[in-house]
# Entry
Amino acid sequence: MLKNLLSRFRGAEPDEQPRPPELPIPGPPEAPPPGPETPEPGPAETPAPGPEPAPDPTPVEIPPPTAMADDPPAKGGWFARLKAGLSRSTAKLTESVTTLFTKRKLDEEALEELEETLIAADLGVAASRRIVEGFRRTRFGKEVTDEEVRATLAEEIATILAPVAQPLPIDTARAPHVVLVVGVNGTGKTTTIAKLGKQYRDRGLSVGMVAGDTFRAAAVEQLQVWAERTGARFFPPARPGADAAGLAFDALASARAEGLDVLLVDTAGRLHNKSALMEELRKVVRIIRRVDETAPHSVLLVLDATTGQNAVQQVKVFKEMVDVTGLAVTKLDGSAKGGVVVALAQEFALPVHVVGVGEKAEDLRPFEARDFARGLLGLD
Ligand SMILES: Nc1nc2c(ncn2[C@@H]2O[C@H](COP(=O)(O)OP(=O)(O)OP(=O)(O)O)[C@@H](O)[C@H]2O)c(=O)[nH]1
Ligand SMILES: [Mg+2]
# Structure
């Protein structure tokens, strides 16, 4: 599994992820913020003077900006969308539970099968064991229906999730509150920034977006489109491959001068190897602390639920690199692996701030333990 994860870090070649169809490139990027790109010419932090990487010659690809601000809201409330989004995970879990427990005694064998079902649904070994223990204590030897099992499962899962269900705290007094967004490539970092940015703008906050994935022109353009659509201040690199830490420094200095409320910093998901990525992320943190020693105020790790247990490995790897303060779990709508959120909660106890169940801005929502647990079990 780790091998699989690390292989995603390898190779600085253009992104191989399948991408949405190309769109015409919007106008030229905004002028970069004033000031030197690399702060203080101190020897330790100055980027190595080696050859600049060649600008990305590949055509610029931008996800269609259709799924944001102006679309009519999807039918049904948030819970209906959550349930619909989780339906693939739900089907996997409830079918097994139904097959297992159509009026059956909850004996040792049944409990073992239940544990296997939960593990197969990506809840992880520790959480699955804990849940089954709960059943053993309260229901052992009793005859149960699949309905009862589902309801009890939802309660047990909600108990595990409740402590991690915490909104992303934004302290506007920081002016700006800096959110560093990290994660492997393709997990949804840039779209999560776009969605959060839109939600903060809707709340009347002033927002900056920093295109810290400087190597890929496509990544910069993608964020620029979102910034324009949401009315956020956009901070692009001066040129492709420019030093991400220097950009973050300049952006934070400008954001401070302008009194922005929130600064969302995008980062590259893949450099040529893990240690290069680690070095870059640590450098970004080190350098922005020269402007505000309390920054970044949040380090949001974005995980793609479709990768299942691989997400667990990603948390371990990123926790080594930076001080991850919370998680965003995306693509729960396209996954049969929503159970992984339970595994993450059990294993790391990191706050899960938001979950994504679709591509619209309103499909990124605060994580609610009870709703999620009941949605996962297909209950109302
Ligand atoms: N269905 C669905 N798609 C999502 C969700 N979140 C993000 N996506 C899609 O996932 C794809 C990748 O998202 P990006 O935001 O570009 O991911 P990234 O982490 O910035 O990727 P890199 O910049 O390549 O590292 C895009 O097509 C998004 O629209 C979600 O919750 N549900
Ligand atoms: Mg991106």
Q: What stands out?
A: The two ends are 35 Å apart (CA to CA). The longest helix spans residues 146-161. Residues 189-190, 213, 219, 266 surround magnesium ion (ligand 2) (CB under 6 Å).
